[in-house]
Design a protein that fits this description.
The protein has 665 residues and is mainly β. It has 7 helices and 38 strands. The protein has one domain: Maltoporin, Chain A. The radius of gyration is 24 Å and the shape is globular. It is found in: Cell outer membrane.
Length: 665
Amino acid sequence: MEKRNLLAVTLALIAANPALAQTADAPPPAATPLDAVTTTATRTRAVAGDLAVPAAVVPREEVERRDARSVLDLIRDIPGVESSGVPRTTAMQPVIRGLGDERIVLRLDGARNNFNAGHRGRTFVDPELLRQVEVLRGPASTLYGSGALGGAIALRTISADDILQPGASFGGAASMGWQSQGSGPRGSLALGARAGEFSVLGAMTGFTNGNFTDGRGTTIPYSEDEATSLLGKLGWNPGHHRFELSAMRFRDTNTLPIAASTATTTSITDRETVQETLSLRWSYDDPSMPLLAPQVVVYRNHVDIQERRLTGTRAVDGTTLTTTGIDAQNTSRFGGFGAHALTYGFEYYRDEQEGTSNSSARSQFPTAQQSVLGLFAQDEITLGAFTLTPGVRLDRFEQESPNGLNDRSVDRISPRVSLGWQVLPWMQPYVSYAEGFRAPSLTELYVGGQHFPGNFFVPNPNLRPEVSRNKEAGVNLRFADVLRDGDRLRVRLSAFRNDIDDFIEQTVLATTTVTRNIGQARITGVEAEAQYDAGTWWLGLGAAALKGDNLETNQPLASIPAHRVSVNAGYRFLDQGVTVGGRITATAEQDRAPATTGVAQQTSGYGLLDLFASWTPTAAPNLRVALAVDNVFDHAYRRSTWNSDPAPAFYETGRNIRGSLRIAF
């Protein structure tokens, strides 16, 4: 494990300073994203490709290469991961194994983002500020509580160490870029300083764009955007302690429909979205004290959306959610019957939401609160070639209704166990069983008021929590020196069945819109990912095939993405500092969709080609120039997760030419 951790640190240094990779006479040691270190999958440091759970990592090098405008652009190649919503940047949401919205836990530097309100999006982060994205697929309630039916996504922002050159006391990086879609410029500036045990970081980013066009040249209405972000961090490392204070502010302004994630072009509003996240993290790590490795995060996450309707009532609506919490854990390592890494702790958070219309209460987003306490424990037990990992979590919810008449409490125990067997040095099969749950949201419980003219929401304070039971089997394969000395090949294959009881579904009837438990749903699937890196060139593959059904109605679930295969490859001209590559994505037809007007909605299959290149001159190693072309052939296509019946008047974003220039100093 120490050698693998050293490899991960070396790769992080190379990503932070491309010159290290370009000045060597020989290719750098080959590694793949499955060799990256993750702390999300088990709450302890582990190599992603060695785990008995499907965990994926997008490192800083990949973040920079993608030059993405949204978090979803960064994770779209991960098997089983899709995005839902029309291509309006802040309205899109992640979907993991067919489950989205509040069925995925989002964490930003350890702070929970519980915001979810009617087609308004959840991922309010500029990717330019991210150093790593970790995606855990499958139920994760044992570690992260309510909402982790589909999985968890951890976003980690940059720190001074990602900006400063080794040994430097001051430095920074500036970038500017442009894309043809929406004629959109972007820019960023980050400054870092280090003095003894202290470090400080300040960063700002921004981008703007006009309306996008699809593959047929049709304007995607109301897709213009303007966003700015600010990030500040203060670090202190006295001895074996680490303190980090982080503050981040994201602001986005645009004009778009109230239901921005759908293809509608009615009920237009001027929207301002602000997310402010403040967190304080403390950790202690002394190798001479294996029983003590605590981590504590105290945080406040505030999301505020203000909307001025340009049609109809022309009301001014406010939608806010404030989450305040603490997450504390300790890992004790000891021997006995095998080697143990026992992680235990607690999480407490409180959500306070408020909806207003012209400063009066808005029942469509009711003013309500909830307090949640979770206690968890997990033991990673190594017994020779076997790794057994049992875990359990107890959550208690206290939910307070607007009028105090329908207050309620919910308790839930979420167990998990996995077993991995290192049967051969290159092969590790594993099996796992995990339960997840999602308590009904405050809006689902207490919503009211008009949905649309002639139709009204009906609250349901008797909703039961959703509970999932996931069985999974897979195998991790790892090889070295396959085609040449120093290369590396990683492969993961997995199959799962996720049975969900008391699935919560919103149904629009003739005059009412009701939310209720529908009974049972089942999602099954297979996933495969393979990654090869030989230093000078690499090849990666990701594939997933999912099927989801409502077992009560024998109808397919609407959120299941189509089968998909993604292949990416590239070559590094190390002497010239040039990297070139491309990506091919093939998506099958999706003909399994619930019947709406008597005929199931179908989404055609499609294929996409993306190309990219970058240049770090050997004479100027702190300079990086990048060029990319997305959807090279300007193909007109739709993802099944936002297609509708009747079909929308536009498709996904068409060809997009992107360029950027980055200077480190």
